[in-house]
Specification:
single chain; mainly alpha; 3 helices; about 55% helix
Length: about 120
């Protein structure tokens, strides 16, 4: 086997393992992306193991994606995880804050401190 063939095998098997590891992480990526990453990683790994164990010479296919695709998947994985964490930290404020200098209301009903019956029309009890 030539040195170039062995380097290609190392990249093929290493790319497959790396992509399978990334596909195994559930956080930070969608199901479809995980599925495609896993399928491509398994394909790279199986083809690399086939060439290593059973290939005895002749013609073989060189996939240039073996060199490019794992780098793109890894960069996209970490970028999506970073953006996901940033989105979780930037949760908008749900409750309206009290006015400046005013204490927050502690469950008092509206009209607290007014005498009872003051909201009734005059002449009626």
């Amino acid at each position: 086997m030539t040195t170039l063939f062995l380097i290609y095998l190392l990249f093929l098997i290493g790319s497959g393992i790396a992509m399978l590891a990334i596909a195994g992480v559930r956080r930070g990526q969608g199901k479809a992306r995980r599925l495609w990453t896993g399928v491509l990683g398994a394909g790279f790994l199986i083809y690399g193991l086939y060439l290593l164990l059973f290939f005895r010479g002749g013609h073989f296919l060189v996939f240039y994606y073996v060199f490019i695709l794992p780098i793109l998947v890894i960069v996209r994985f970490f970028r999506d995880r970073f953006l996901g964490r940033k989105r979780q930290q930037a949760v908008p404020f749900q409750d309206q804050p009290p006015a400046y200098g005013q204490p927050p209301a502690h469950g008092q009903p509206p009209g607290y401190g007014q005498p009872p019956g003051s909201d009734q029309p005059p002449g009626r009890l």
